[in-house]
């Protein structure tokens, strides 16, 4: 199986043995699992010549054109063609399996049913050694144990910003990236350049973009949102949990924040603006305004119907809060209690009236302490009039309590 | 309050690399070299400071632009543009220069400890343990501004000391703009050292990786430029000026040369009198530790970025063996070197700066070849920055080549 570095710079000869130049590059259209090599770029005495790969035969030590150079038709590279050496060698790519960005040391090509195809990116030590011409030496020293680090091509996502002529190429849809877990996308995005990051967040679907953005390090969140077109940024913020959107907006310059809130949907914007009024280190600052509140006078059946209508996110269904006519917190009821209750029973009779709650102005450490002590999954937050205004969920608290950098570390270990 | 915080944070995000680099630039080797320059040649090398102030601003801004446009460190860009072999050459150059600098920082620690009677062997062990501890606990970033504060305090001490020693200010000011060159090999050697300690290979790597790591992009150019101009253009060389003037006013007239840290400390005598040694020791300690916080780390980063190995302190040992291996090699190697008995610490620190100065052009040529690439867009070096950058690179190359040639011709 040849590597690009092994056939690049080979001599190219005409059928009669006349040398016309060397192989400079190969080109593929990046479609399908293992794209076929379709063009060869030759370095000749009078500059670059692009010819069809099918016009070339591989022979030992050199490449032979099937006809004389002046009879071989000139080929044109389509705009979405990838030149292997120029666009991929030494560049960064996304290893979608390991969910990280790696650098291409060499490219593995293989003959599949008479067709030379790009089958993998060599990102290992062997590739590096081969490039400086020391693979053989190293093999003699370390034997066959020298690890191969090849990522199959269908697990690779090239990065667009690597191409020198920006904007010229049609972008490959980022399907492979979009299939990853949002937390993995976040990890990858953190290693990208600003341009590339913007690009990813413009192309992901809104839901994935919102989830991925929530997982990105706080310092980067602000700069990503600043780089995005405003409409797009506002759409993503709409989709994020209000507490996370509010945290993010807090890090932006004032004018930018106001513009974005303006563009957000009414309801989401209201939630976020309410959250922005609380200092960052209080219960109000870390809470989310997403929660399920059931009026006390509903029957169990009505309550279940209401839930069916609301279709709340799974993490909001651990506790269902019961409120009175003024929105004051009366009690709490679990989904299980609601389901096992008789359909005509009033929610107020099934609920647990002894509900733990915390004032919005309490410190976030107090919130964490309460949640930890009573093993809660969420804690309701009330204002001075005991009105239920939000909840703090255990995942928000975990982030307060964990040392910095832990989140990153664990995700990398699990990705293996 | 909230509003101010939002904006302040926005600027703090960008402000920093220049500031930290400025103080890390005046590391143990820097303080020593400037002291030697002032003690041996008085105001004779003042003019170099003005030139290096401009040169440092230009090279750092060029590097900053590269990082802002591409989000990559210098090593990554060299790899993409020049391939594996040239990258190997650049990495080797960087590692040799940085190993020299790391040794200089260890020597600085040893010199600082020696003023309190601690022998070099013990100081080497203490220093290595301290660095490993700080790196392992990730506390360098938290305390780095503490060191910057000590650095600032010592600089102010030098400024007052210079003032109290009643130097000929008119002469000093004139020497800043009118070169007073002594035609001797010692003078030329000192010139290489002063340039090498001010504009460094690792400084070029650091500014880029700092910006790339913070995730700054093209729109952060304005605050980053301010930061670079203040840090590289003003602060670094202002501190150097104070040190040289203080030494020129105190040590130069006596005709004594600096043989150990105690000699260098006497430059602070006019301000703090008998406690000059302690003040100098604390300053040297902070400067060396700030250097140790940055140089080994940025070396390991550089090599790993170039070859695509996992890098960063958030990884575990077994996840990033090359990164930690290099880091350990730097710390252990330098620690072991320093325990060589009878090592002249001041000379070691100075010579490391000379090595940096000699290797600098290689790194600058890579930077200059990169800074006109079309993919940088609006951040390409413009009609002022680009020729200035090459002029600086040409001067640095001429300096290095002259030095190497003179080694062969006059021996």
Structure, explained:
The complex is a heterodimer of chains A (416) and B (411). Chain A has 416 residues and is of the alpha+beta class. Chain A has helices spanning 4-7, 84-88, 125-131, 135-142, 175-178, 182-190, 194-203, 206-215, 218-227, 230-239, 242-250, 254-263, 266-276, 283-286, 300-310, 335-340, 347-350, 364-373, 394-401, 406-415, and strands at 11-13, 19-28, 37-44, 47-52, 56-59, 62-65, 82-83, 92-95, 100-103, 106-112, 115-122, 150-152, 156-158, 293-295, 320-323, 329-333, 358-359, 378-382, 388-393. Among the domains of chain A are: 4-82, PRC-barrel domain (SH3 type barrels), CATH 2.30.30.240; 178-277, MgtE N-terminal fold (Alpha Horseshoe); 293-401, Roll (CBS-domain), CATH 3.10.580.10. Chain A is built from 20 helices and 19 strands. In chain A, strands 1, 2, 3, 4, 5, 6 and 7 form a seven-stranded mixed beta sheet that branches. Chain A has a three-stranded antiparallel beta sheet with strand order 9-8-13. Chain A is elongated. With 411 residues, chain B is an all-alpha fold. Chain B has one domain: Amino acid/polyamine transporter I (Up-down Bundle). Chain B has helices spanning 2-14, 17-25, 28-41, 46-70, 74-114, 120-136, 140-164, 169-177, 185-198, 201-214, 221-250, 261-265, 269-272, 276-307, 321-338, 345-370, 385-409. The longest helix of chain B is centred in the N-terminal third of the chain and has 41 residues, at 74-114. The chains are: A alpha+beta (416), B mainly alpha (411). Chains A and B meet through helix 7, helix 9 and helix 20 of A and helix 1, helix 4 and helix 5 of B.
Summarize, please.
The complex is a heterodimer of chains A (about 425) and B (about 400). By secondary structure, chain A is α+β, with helices and mostly antiparallel strands.
């Amino acid at each position: 199986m040849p590597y690009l570095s092994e056939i690049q710079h080979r001599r190219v000869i005409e059928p009669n043995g006349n040398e016309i130049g060397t192989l400079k590059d190969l080109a593929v259209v990046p479609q399908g699992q293992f794209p076929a090599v379709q063009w060869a770029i030759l370095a000749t005495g009078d500059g670059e010549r692009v010819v069809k790969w099918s016009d070339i035969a591989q022979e030992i030590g050199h490449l032979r054109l099937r006809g004389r150079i002046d009879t071989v038709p000139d080929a044109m590279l389509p705009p979405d063609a990838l030149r292997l050496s120029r666009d991929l060698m030494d560049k960064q790519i996304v290893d979608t399996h390991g969910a990280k960005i790696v650098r291409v040391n060499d490219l593995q090509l293989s003959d599949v049913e008479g067709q030379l195809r790009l089958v993998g990116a060599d990102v290992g030590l062997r590739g590096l050694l081969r490039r400086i011409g020391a693979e053989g030496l190293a093999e003699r020293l370390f034997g066959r144990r020298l690890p191969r680090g090849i990522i199959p091509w269908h697990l690779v996502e090239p990065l667009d910003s690597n191409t020198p002529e920006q904007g010229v190429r049609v972008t490959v849809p980022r399907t492979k990236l979009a299939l990853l877990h949002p937390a993995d996308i976040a990890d990858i995005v953190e290693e990208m350049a600003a341009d590339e990051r913007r690009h990813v967040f413009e192309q992901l679907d809104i839901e994935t973009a919102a989830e991925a953005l929530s997982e990105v390090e706080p310092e980067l969140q602000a700069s990503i949102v600043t780089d995005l077109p405003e409409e797009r940024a506002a759409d993503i913020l709409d989709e994020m949990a209000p507490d996370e959107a509010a945290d993010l907006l807090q890090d932006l310059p004032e004018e930018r924040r106001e513009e974005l809130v303006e563009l957000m949907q009414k309801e989401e914007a209201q939630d976020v603006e309410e959250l922005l009024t609380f200092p960052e280190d209080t219960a109000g600052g870390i809470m989310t305004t997403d929660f399920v509140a059931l009026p006390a006078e509903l029957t169990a059946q009505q309550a279940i119907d209401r839930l069916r209508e609301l279709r709340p996110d799974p993490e909001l269904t651990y506790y269902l809060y019961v409120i009175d006519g003024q929105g004051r917190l009366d009690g709490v009821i679990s989904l299980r209690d609601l389901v096992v209750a008789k359909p005509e029973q009033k929610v107020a009779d099934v609920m647990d009236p002894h509900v733990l709650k915390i004032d919005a102005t309490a410190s976030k450490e107090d919130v964490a302490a309460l949640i930890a002590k009573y093993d809660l999954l969420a804690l309701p937050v009330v204002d001075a009039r005991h009105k239920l205004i939000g909840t703090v969920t255990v995942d928000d608290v975990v982030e307060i309590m964990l040392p910095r950098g832990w989140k990153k570390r664990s995700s990398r270990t699990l990705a293996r | 309050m909230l509003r101010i915080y939002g904006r302040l944070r926005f600027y703090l995000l960008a402000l920093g690399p220049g500031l930290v680099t400025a103080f890390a630039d005046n590391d143990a080797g820097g303080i020593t070299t400037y002291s030697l320059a002032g003690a041996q040649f008085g105001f004779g090398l003042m003019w170099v400071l003005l030139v290096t102030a401009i040169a440092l601003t230009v090279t750092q801004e060029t590097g900053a632009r590269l990082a802002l446009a591409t989000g990559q460190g210098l090593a990554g860009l060299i790899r993409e543009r020049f391939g594996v072999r040239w990258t190997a050459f650049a990495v080797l150059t960087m590692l040799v220069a940085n190993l020299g600098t790391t040794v200089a920082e260890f020597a600085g620690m040893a010199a600082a400890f020696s003023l309190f009677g601690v022998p070099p062997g013990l100081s080497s062990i203490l220093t290595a343990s301290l660095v490993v501890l700080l790196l392992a606990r990730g506390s360098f970033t938290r305390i780095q501004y503490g060191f910057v504060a000590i650095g600032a305090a010592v600089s102010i001490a030098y400024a007052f000391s210079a003032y109290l020693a009643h130097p000929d200010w008119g002469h000093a000011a004139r020497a800043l703009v009118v070169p007073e060159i002594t035609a001797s090999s010692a003078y030329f050697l000192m010139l290489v050292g002063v340039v090498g300690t001010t504009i460094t290979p690792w400084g070029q790597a650091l500014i880029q990786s700092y910006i790339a790591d913070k995730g700054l992009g093209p729109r952060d150019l304005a605050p980053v430029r301010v930061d670079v101009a203040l840090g590289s253009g003003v602060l670094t060389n202002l501190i150097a000026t104070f040190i040289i003037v203080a030494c020129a006013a105190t040590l130069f007239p006596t005709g004594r040369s600096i043989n150990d840290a105690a000699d260098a400390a006497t430059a602070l005598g006019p301000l703090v009198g008998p406690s000059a040694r302690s003040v100098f020791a604390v300053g040297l300690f902070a400067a060396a530790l700030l250097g140790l916080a940055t140089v080994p780390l940025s070396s390991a980063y550089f090599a790993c970025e170039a070859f695509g190995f996992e890098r960063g302190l958030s990884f575990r040992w077994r996840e990033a063996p090359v990164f930690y291996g290099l880091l350990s090699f730097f710390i252990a190697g330098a620690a072991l070197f320093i325990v060589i008995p009878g090592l002249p610490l001041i000379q070691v620190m100075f010579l490391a700066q000379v090595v940096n100065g000699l290797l600098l052009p290689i790194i600058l040529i890579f930077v200059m070849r990169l800074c006109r690439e079309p993919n940088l867009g609006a951040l390409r070096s413009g009609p002022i920055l680009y020729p200035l950058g090459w002029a600086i690179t040409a001067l640095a190359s001429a300096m290095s080549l002259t030095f190497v040639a003179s080694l062969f011709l006059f021996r």
